[in-house]
Amino acid sequence: MLFELIRLEFLKSFRSTSFAKSVMVAIFLGFLAIMLLGYLLLAGIFLGRILGELAEGQDPIEVLNSGLIFFFLVEFMYRYFLQKLPVIELESLLHLPISKKKIMHMLLGRSFFSPLSIIALILFAPFAFTEISIQYVVAGAISWLGTLLFISWTLHWFMLWFKQRFEDSLIGVIIVFIVLLLGGGSTYMGWFNLGELVAPFFTFAMSSFLPLAIMLILCFVGYYMAFSYYLNNAYLEDLAKEEEVRFVNQSVGFFSRFGMAGELADLEWKLIIRHKKSRTFLMLSAFFLLYGTIFYDNPEYQDGPMQNIFIFVGVFITGIFMIQYGQLFLSWNSGYFDFFLSRRDGVKNLVRGKYLLLLSISLLCFLLSIPYVYYGWSFLLIHLATFLFNAGIMIHLIIYLALWKPKPMDLNKGAMFNYEGVGAAQFLMIIPMMVAPYLIYLPFAMLFNFYAGLAALSTVGIIGIIFFNKLSTININRVLDNRYEISSSFRQEL
C-alpha cells in the first residue's frame, strides 16, 4: 500500500500543468544541493587540519567535541527555517480505504529523504575514520559518528512536530529565542560555556555505546511524537476549525483612524498573519532585531572608519520589515489586484495603506530596539536618525524600485528558496539602499564628526516626512499609470 501511495504522488506530479517548470526547478536545486554537499565533504576531509590551525597546540578531537553542541544549535536553526513540512492532499486520500497510519508513515518517510539528513554524515564521517579511529579504534569512531547522526535525525523528527505544533504561534518564536539565548548567547555573553558542559557526553561516546543507544531511543521517541501528532490531527474539519479560531479578532484598531487606507492596512496585516510566506517575513524581522549584538559590543568597530558600519546596522534594524516586505510591494496582492482596480480610488488607497503598514511596523522596530542603549546612548541616536531617514526617504526609494515590473506569487508557499515575485529589481535595490544613507552621512561625518553625520541624516529624514504626501504621490501615480500592465502580468500563471 505504501508503494501505491508513492505511485499516486508521482502520477500527480506528472499530470501537473507545471510539470516542466517543476522539473527544471528540481534540477537546479539538485545541482545546488550537490555542490553544497561537495563543499561540506571537502570541509569534512580537512576538518582535522582546520581544527589544528584554529586551536594550535590542542587536541582536535577535544576541540571538536567542545564545539559540537553549537553545530547542533545551528542545525536546529536551519532546520527551523529550511526544513519543509511534509505536505499531502488529505482530501484525496482520507475517503479511500487506506489506513491513516500508512498515509502518515509515508508522509514522514518521504520527509526524511532530504540533503539535510546527511549533512552530519558527510561533515563528520571523514574525521571519525581518520582521527578518532586512530585513538579509539574503529568501534569508537562508529559509536561517536552514530551518536551524531541520531542527534541530527532526532532534530529532524522533533522539528516536524515543533513546526506543525508551534509555527503559527508566539510560543514557537519564544522557544526559538530561548534556544538562541541559552545556546549561543550564554557563551557570547560569558555566562557559561555550553560546549564545555556537553563535551563529556561526546567524549564518552567514543569509548562506550551507551550514548549511541540513548540517542537511538530518543530518535524513535521523536518519530513517534511526530507520527502521533500528525495522526491525531489528520481530520480536515479539525484543521479548518483551528484555522478559523486562530486568526479571530486580529484587527489593529489604530489603523481605523486613517479612513479607507487604514482599513486596507488592517486587511494587509490580517493577510500577513494568515499566509505562510508573509508570516515568515514578519518572524525574520523579529530575529534580525538582534543584528546589532554582532557589531555594537565588538571592539573592532568602536573606533576609526569601521564605526561607520553602525549606520547600515541602524538602517537594517529599524527598517528590516520595510526592506523585506516592501521589496515585493504589489506582488503580495497579485491574486486580487483586479479587485482594487475596479474600485474608485482602490489602487490609491491600497498604496497608501501599505505605506501606513510599513511605517507602523518600522516604528515598532525602532521602539523594540531602544534596549540597545545598554551599549551606549550613541546607539539610540543612531537608531533614531536611521529610523527618520527610513520613514522620510528610504521607504519611497524601496517602493519606487519595487514597482519596476512586479511579478505574481503564491502567498501560501514558504519563504525559503521561494523566488516567486522576485525579479531583477529585488536584487539591484540593495545597492541604492546601502549607498543612500551614506551619501548624506559621510560628508558631514568626515568634515565635522560622527554626530554631525547623524544630524544630517535625521534632518533629511524629517524633510522627507514633511513632504511625505508629495513623495508618496510619485509612487501612487506610477502605479496608476501602469495599472493595466501590472494587472496583466499578475494574471500570468505562476
UniProtKB/TrEMBL annotation:
Q: Which Pfam families match?
A: DUF5687
- InterPro entries on file: DUF5687
Origin: domain of life: Bacteria
Q: Does the keyword Transferase apply?
A: no
Membrane-spanning segments: 23-51, 63-82, 103-128, 134-158, 170-191, 197-226, 280-297, 309-334, 355-374, 380-403, 424-444, 450-468
Keywords (alphabetical) are:
Membrane, Transmembrane, Transmembrane helix
Q: What is this protein called?
A: ABC-2 type transport system permease protein
Q: Which organism is it from?
A: Algoriphagus locisalis
